[in-house]
Amino acid sequence: MTNTANIFLPTGSLPAVSDAKNGFPTPFPWVGLITLSAAVFLSVTSEMLPTGLLPEMSRSLNVAQSQIGLLVSWFAFTVVLTSAPVAIWTRRFPRHGLIIVVLVIFAVSNILTAIAPTYELVVAARVLGGVAHGLFWSVVGAYAGHLVPKAQIGRAVSITVAGGTLAFVFGVPLGTAGGHLLGWRLSFVVLAGLMLVGAVLVWKFLPPVARYSTGAPASAAAATTRPPRDATVPAVVLICIITGITMIGHYSFYTYITPFLLDGLGVDLGLVAPLLFVYGVAGAVGLLLVGTVFGTRPSLGLILGLAISALSVTILAMFTATLPIALAAFVLWGMAFGTLPPLLQTRMLHAASPRIRDTASAFYTTAFNAGIGGGALLGAMLIDSVGLETVPIVYVGVLVVALALVLVTDRMTRRRAAA
Question: The whole model's pTM is what?
């Protein structure tokens, strides 16, 4: 998942964090939250690293670049299919120990990827990583919420998911640069080592928390009583559909951005990692715009983000022969898209009534990961059938559909508010 992976918050109110000895509130847990953010950084880097190493992995494993792109699909679809059952199965395990175990499994997955002699074994290793990734994201957000009083949950969650943003700014570009210089297998070995270091840091610096509520009914009567239909469900479903569609479009192109930069724009291989770094920084700027400008106006920000993304990718596709214009459009695209995932999540939380926000968040995460996997699959099909140059055109078309649906959702929300 990306810097915008969804946050699962525990049901019910959270107890205030206080010093049991003298009754005063404890200091804000910066060290623990930064450690958690580092784990997020490693998780997202592991998920997206193949996007920067497509040419090298393709040549080494003797498969088409589209097949390497499908590694993202295998990873994301595994998250979609396994996150809920694995989260239920592990609900009685200590949260602190689960994060450590997940990071160790990530390390094993990356080591297996690095030593796999065949494409099929790489797929199996990525599936293992996908199982760990799904469990990881079912724990992380609620964990951050338990470290702070209720009034500071938003701040804690923001610090935690910042690791995902930094993964695109530093993790993927550095892994790509290392793969270009020393070989793609060594990049995965180094990432595995960092996962083990992360597990040690979590063990040492992340405070343990009590297991949180799974939301089970308090009584048999509560379990058999059907709740009344919530009027906000249609808007939430539509926003989740918009999220899935937007991610399908984005990852149909971004998954194969390295071959596009090399073959479409003609940049040197050594420039790929710096360009991915610039793209990640632009995305961080977009995230900053959400917090400072569009946080209270998510509908306006979402419309502008989709429209500018579509415009910038259109320019990128039209001016491949004019490198300065194409690269400027590439950076603009990174900034515009950086606003979309947090705005989509904010829009969903605004649309959902408090009673269904937990359920709505679960559907949002499923839609997001299904979009990642579906996008990588769509891009592979387009590349194999009609060529790489058509992928950005399809992406723009998908964004136009998402933009139309956003306008429909706004209209539904206004009608509900007026009713």
Answer: 0.77
